[in-house]
Structures are given as structure tokens and as C-alpha cells.
Amino acid sequence: MQYIDSQLNFTDHVAHLAVKGYRMTNLILKCFKLRDSSCLVRAFITYVRPRLEYCSVAWNSLLVKNIEELEKVQRRFTEIAIDETAHIVSDFLHYSWKVWN
């Protein structure tokens, strides 16, 4: 379903896609217990990107704010996935350091 205003502007549609992307991103981060960054990225590419890119030829916009809104979904996911992975690795290294000493 596409949301179009009276001026044939797809800003509402892009906002709806971004909300769906954030929801799927949160679902991936909740459901996947394994925090391997390659696994999380593969899940994002499989489940979120198709929703963001579906039928993009029809609603493709040249408005920078629409493009940035969709890119924010990916940026937020990568920040969280990389940060959590780095946090887990640092905890593991800290724990293994205690075990060896």
C-alpha cells in the first residue's frame, strides 16, 4: 500500500516504511540471541531491506529528507548491532582476562 498526498508526494509513504523498518529492526534485535554482527547484518538484509526497497521504482523520491529517513533505519541498526557486539566482545575479553590472572 502506498500513501500519497494531494500533491503526489510520497513523504507519508516513506515515513510509513521507516516505521515498519524500525519495528522489524527492533524485532530482529530482540529475537536473535546470537549477537554475531555478520548474522545480524544478514537478518537485516533478509527481513528489513526488502520492506524498505519494495516497489521503490514507483515511489522513488528525489527529496533528500526522504532518502535520509530511510537511511536512518539502516544507520540505527548498524550502530546498535556493532555497539552490542563490541560490548559483548569487551565483556568476554574482560572476563577471560580475569580467569587467566
Brief description of this entry?
By secondary structure, the protein is mainly alpha-helical.
How does the major sheet shape up?
A: none
Low-confidence stretches: 96-101
Overall number of domains: 1
Number of E-type strands: 0
What is the rounded distance between the termini?
Answer: 59 Å
Helix-and-strand structural type: mainly alpha
Notes on the protein architecture:
- With about 100 residues, the protein is mainly α.
- The protein has one domain.
- The chain contains five helices and no strands.
- The chain has helices spanning about 10-30, 35-45, 50-55, 55-60, 65-100.
- The N and C termini lie far apart (about 60 Å).
- The model is unreliable at about 95-100 (pLDDT under 50).
Features:
101 residues, mainly alpha, 5 helices, elongated, disordered C terminus
What is the topology?
Elements lengths: L10 H21 L5 H11 L1 H5 L2 H4 L4 H37 L1
Helix pairs in contact: 1-2, 1-5, 2-5
